[in-house]
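FIELD: query
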Amino acid sequence: MTDKTDASQQTGGASAADPVKGTSLWADAGRRLVKNKAAMAGGIVVLIMVALALLADVLSMTLTHFTQEETHSDSYVLPRPPGARAVPSVHVTFFPTGGPHNFASVDTDKNGKVTGTELSAAVSHIELGRFDTDGDGKLNEPEFNAAPHGLVAEEATLAYQDDNGDGGLDVEEAYEFVDIFPRNEADAFVRKFDKDGDEELTEAEFPGVPEPRPYILGSDNAGRDLLTRLLYGGRISLAVGLLATLVSFLIGVTWGATAGFLGGRVDNIMMRIVDVMYGLPFMFVVIFLMVLFGKNILLLFLALGAVQWLTMSRIVRGQVISLKNREFVEAAHSIGVSKLTIIFRHLIPNALGPIIVYSTLTVPAVMLEEAFLSFLGLGVQPPYASWGSLASEGRIALEDYPWLILYPGLALAVTLLSLNFLGDGLRDALDPQMKKD
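FIELD: result
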């Protein structure tokens, strides 16, 4: 009689009551993917980008305090560098009441009313006070250089602004330089809270002195906050990549699976159509569609997806041809399952590995094509913005205002690289020929 120890040794250490559990292809692929550090890092970055795009409304309200449409153009109408400040027109916050922020200090003419001019001057006084370290009411050369501004480097000198030549910049001289709250914006702010319609605020109507907020990544040449536009632009860029890939997926998988399963003359005709379309310059086809039907963002999704399905169809066709003579397909034939059901319920699910991999690599390709079209002025149109259109706007002023192209280009590059790392990781994880660790 053999004891339990001998039986356990004969079965490789597992008793009959505790059988060895197998590992499915998807579970094994998941294990490999988790061990691929580059793919996991890419996936995390992509998730972060998607989260930032989805939370653009919340971040606009709580982080940047600017909307993507609002403009804050000063008299120079020049982009402002990172750190420059402006008063938001929608998500307004106020200084704590008291000291230089109360009604009496803003009402300089003491007539019991605050005008837009007085409010604009009050904000300028407060902003100048942030850099007036010696408290003399003027900005000397070091204080001036420490203050962020929006003038080009050649003009951003104290001597250029110092009208009376006393070596310091007072509020009146710095009015245009500071321009945190231009008079036209201050007048609009007053009208917003003016209940009696006299375009002046009484003490009861006065909400407080609005607090300027920084342009974290600078502003564009229309005075719009670049970070806010990047957040909303991420929505468009990622949506273009995902939705165009979905269009490519639907067309390519259906076409390729049908051609591969039916075979014969049908396969020849369908794949010759693919070959002919391969001979057409894809980008010119998209440009032609955009010119013919108009610059519509929905058409952009469809057009990019409609020229990306060809490779997908070839991949799916090859997979279906290798699967259609397998036993499970013959069994489905023998019990009378329709051809359509065999294609969509048996063949395509078993070819999902390569399909998923190619789809993840299609997303960055589509995003890059959208960026190229936006660079040509044929992509996303105002008031919408994408990372590609923002980079296109930035290229015009690359030498003087490099941040306008640097940040959109960086967001696009990081996302594309991350998607490629994720796609490569999925390819390795789903390849059954890969050596197991």
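FIELD: remark
Confidence is low (pLDDT under 50) at residues 1-16, 150-155.
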